[in-house]
Amino acid sequence: MNLTENQIERYSRHIILQDIGGVGQEKILNSKVLIIGTGGLGAPAALYLAAAGVGTIGLVDGDVVDISNLQRQVIHFTPDIGVLKVESAKAKINQINPDVIVKTYAEFFTADNALVILKDYDFVIDGTDNFPAKFLINDACVMAKKPFSHGGILRFAGQTLTHTPGHACYRCVFNSPPPANAVPTCSQAGVLGAIAGMLGTIQAAEALKFITGVGELLVDRMLIFDAKSMNFRTVKLKKNPSCPLCGDTPKITSLIDYEQAVCDLKKG
Amino acid sequence: MKLTLNGQNETLENETLTIEELLKIKDVKMPEMVTVEHNGEILDRAAFATTAVKEGDTLEFLYFMGGGSH
């Protein structure tokens, strides 16, 4: 594949980066990234990956845009209230960059559809808000040997790690979902909208680093930040021999749909 | 004893301490929302009550964080 003149102009700020260049930009244009959840994290991730020229972006979300989403889910606009999030996001991506093919999955990620949806993608971004989905994404990606970026936000804080096959997974750190009654709901806990942007764009950067092979991923590390103090730290992780999924004696051999945690604003 | 907790140096009056006691001292209200990494190893939750914290140990409290889509 050769870059057109138009593409050379569009992506010139990537191409002049020594680490990326024309070769790296072609890798981006040939890549396929799946974004699960088109909300607080998925919205900024999708905007930047679209602008970067990721060839195919898959969007998974069964929800429609709600007015309370607009404080942070920056790919959705006020007239989109009531529209499927994947359709709203697709429309914006098409406007940002016609190079991008958008595949929409207007459904939630479940044990039944997970492996089928994942199959065609190079990298997965977890932009979901609930632990059943986060554990399912982890399990499906580990089983399918797909790299993915985990992201979590709460109030003023965020955390993210990148998994690549053979390295620490989310379950190596968090063995199983927390008890539902221990989880503060989104509506109870709240989140500063800009935190979602901070974390979602870190996830997008990890995807682009993975695609282009530039730098060191957040593999075997968890990045934690607290926007109140604006302190960022990374905590070293390693594969956990007692991980129920990828440890020495795995107990989990098939995908699990855990009961949905209480994190639904519309019922809140 | 002196230890490193979440990247910060801490000095505690206690001479002996378990992980469970440390979580209480640090006012962690929902220990079920925390994973503890002790000198680079993720601890089994069941071992919180029996694992001793020692002088010079490095600990990380890693919290469950959801957030995102909705």
Keywords:
heterodimer; A: 268 residues; alpha/beta; eight-stranded mixed beta sheet; B: 70 residues; mainly beta; Ubiquitin-like (UB roll); five-stranded mixed beta sheet; 1 helix; 30% strand; globular
Would you kindly provide a written description of the structure presented here, covering whatever features stand out?
The complex is a heterodimer of chains A (268) and B (70). In chain A, 33% of the residues lie in helices and 17% in strands. Chain A has ten helices and eight strands. An eight-stranded mixed beta sheet of chain A has the order 3-2-1-4-5-6-7-8, with helices on both faces. In chain A, α4 (42-52) packs parallel to α5 and α4 packs across α10 (193-212). Chain A is globular and about 55 Å long. Chain B is mainly beta. Chain B has one domain (2-63): Beta-grasp domain (Ubiquitin-like (UB roll)). The model of chain B has no long low-confidence stretch (mean pLDDT 91). The chains are: A alpha/beta (268), B mainly beta (70). The A-B interface holds A 37-42, 61, 63, 69, 126-131, 133-134, 151-154, 157-159, 172-175, 178-179, 182-183, 186, 191, 195-196, 199, 222, 224, 233, 235-238, 240, 242, 261, 263-265 and B 6-7, 30, 32-33, 35, 37, 40-42, 44-45, 60, 62-70.
Number of helices of chain A: 10
Strand content of chain A: 15-25%
Number of strands of chain B: 5
The major beta sheet of chain B can be summarized as: 5 strands, mixed
The gyration radius over C-alpha positions of chain A equals 18 Å
H/E element order of chain A: HHHEHEHEHEHEEHHHEE
* Helix content percent band of chain A: 25-40%
Q: Sheet bearing the most strands of chain A, described?
A: 8 strands, mixed
Q: Strand-residue fraction of chain B?
A: 25-35%
Strand order of the largest sheet of chain A: 3-2-1-4-5-6-7-8
Instruction: Quickly give the structural class of chain A.
Output: alpha/beta
Low-confidence stretches of chain A: 262-268
Oligomerization state of this entry? heterodimer
The side-by-side strand order for the widest beta sheet of chain B comes to: 2-1-5-3-4
The CATH class of chain B turns out to be Alpha Beta
* Shape estimate of chain A: globular
Instruction: Report the order of strands and helices of chain B.
Output: EEHEEE
Give the averaged pLDDT of chain B, no decimals.
Answer: 91
Overall mean pLDDT of chain A stands at: 94
